[in-house]
Amino acid sequence: MARTQGSHAQTTGPKIRDMALRLFAQQGYAATSMRQIAAAVGVQAGALYLYTPDKQALLFELMRDHLNDLLSTWTPPGGGPMAELEDFARHHIRYHLDRPDLVFIAYMELRNLTPENFAVIEALRRDYENRLEAILRAGRAAGIFAMADTKLATMAVISLLTGVTTWFRDGGRLSRSDVETIYWEMVRKAVSVP
Amino acid sequence: MARTQGSHAQTTGPKIRDMALRLFAQQGYAATSMRQIAAAVGVQAGALYLYTPDKQALLFELMRDHLNDLLSTWTPPGGGPMAELEDFARHHIRYHLDRPDLVFIAYMELRNLTPENFAVIEALRRDYENRLEAILRAGRAAGIFAMADTKLATMAVISLLTGVTTWFRDGGRLSRSDVETIYWEMVRKAVSVP
DNA sequence: GCTTGAATTGAACACGCGTTCAGATACCGT
DNA sequence: ACGGTATCTGAACGCGTGTTCAATTCAAGC
User: Fold this and answer.
1) Which of chain A's residues have a Cβ under 8 Å away from the Cβ of B107?
2) Contacting residues for B186 by C-beta, under 8 A, at least 6 apart
3) B150 touches chain A (CB under 8 A)
4) What's the CA B27/C1' D22 distance, rounded, in angstroms?
């Protein structure tokens, strides 16, 4: 098979995903051609099909692996809802700032997934939201948090945290950990008892 | 010229914008062809060029008019930073929930603008952000608001408010004004003195 | 009913797309 | 040095794209 040995395959395979990632993030899935990806890898378009069945699989696997990674790199640390929420918020920001391209694609290219692929991604996304919701629900039950609606608070907190990717650039006025701390403070205040 | 009289022109012209809006929002600018738009209007592709110079202008004018509208339908009402922030937040949510397609396009299709068009849209967007920032800055100076960084708070509040469009659907568990009030409460707490 | 000009068609243009595949090439174990 | 196979090329396929334009249809004024 194609994926096993040979010196080229060990670099070409991953390179395709890297370049697809970069190009999809920069110009979008629909606006990126297989020929462009191939050129970026340094190969002819036909060679891509030794590593991927089609263009759609490239997008889907990027998104699926991203979400699986997001889910597997964080588990509730314990220590009560407040500590867990802080950990969640800081991890979310750190993760998103470390992988801006992946995050961008995961939010922008949902429309370009086939219905079956979309369903898979959607389910992973909901898993992630449910983790935050569980924290908020526990915190409200414990009287630590106060919000009119837990589900809305979940969505609002995720929107707020994810928004950091739209403006943050390395080398700017604030460091990543500055941003992390400032955002966490806003999240905490938004859901805490007044 | 084409735009003046005749019974068809009075309906075909606006119809093109409506259908382009719907299709761009549903499937994206790049994935929508002029032939699809024409079919949705009930006309051949060539006829579109009596009303628009090209496809790009369709996208640009949609976004430009949307942002101009957003800017012109809200002016600071006075009454102090807290009252102004509430008015801003409620207006933002109301406006965004009333025009989900336009809002979606304005956030998703920025990449598909030519550089010149992008610059125009970007400037309008910044105008809008600056209005919120002015409120927050005044509130902090007055000791009503407390946030570590005004610019970050501006971006965070906009992310939080805009996020409502990703999940809200009419006929759901909560009405628009419910959502408006719940979101406003979170915004208020996030930026207020603890 | 004829003339006029706007509104629209439908075919054509050059081009880029995703994907396939027979043939060439490069590399490895022996 | 050779055989085998993993890797890649380059051309081709059918199709859809944005846009143009001569020719046609349509609606209204006289």
Assistant:
1) none
2) A147, A153, A156, A190, A191, B160
3) no
4) 34
Give the phi and the psi of residue B172 in degrees, each rounded to 5. Answer: -80, -165
Q: Which of B149, B157, B192 to mutate to test the interface with A (most CBs of A within 10 A)?
A: B149
Q: Which residue does chain B place closest to A190, by CA atoms? A: B190
Which sign, positive or negative, has the C-alpha torsion B100, B189, A132, A182? positive
Amino acid at site A19: M
Provide the token pair at B120.
């125009």
Strand D contact with B114 (CB < 7 A): no
Give dist(CA B150, CA B155) in Å, integer: 9
Residue A34, classified by CB atoms within 10 Å of its CB into exposed (0-12), middle (13-18) or buried (19+), is: middle
pLDDT tens-digit profile, chain A (194 residues): 333 444 566 678 899 999 999 999 999 999 999 999 999 999 999 999 999 999 999 999 999 999 999 999 999 999 999 999 999 999 999 999 999 999 999 999 999 999 999 999 999 999 999 999 999 999 999 999 999 999 999 999 999 999 999 999 999 999 999 999 999 999 999 999 98
A49 CB neighbours strand C below 7 A: yes
Contact B194 A189 (CB under 8 A): yes
The model carries a pTM of 0.91
Q: Which two tokens stand for residue A192?
A: 């805490």
- Provide the CA B46 to C1' C15 distance, Å, integer: 18
DSSP state of A173: S
CA A189 to chain centre: 25
In chain A, residues with a C-beta closer than 8 Å to the C-beta of B149 are 174, 182
**Residue B175 has which token pair?**
């009405």
Task: Give the minimum alpha-carbon distance from B23 to chain A in angstroms, rounded to a whole number.
Answer: 12
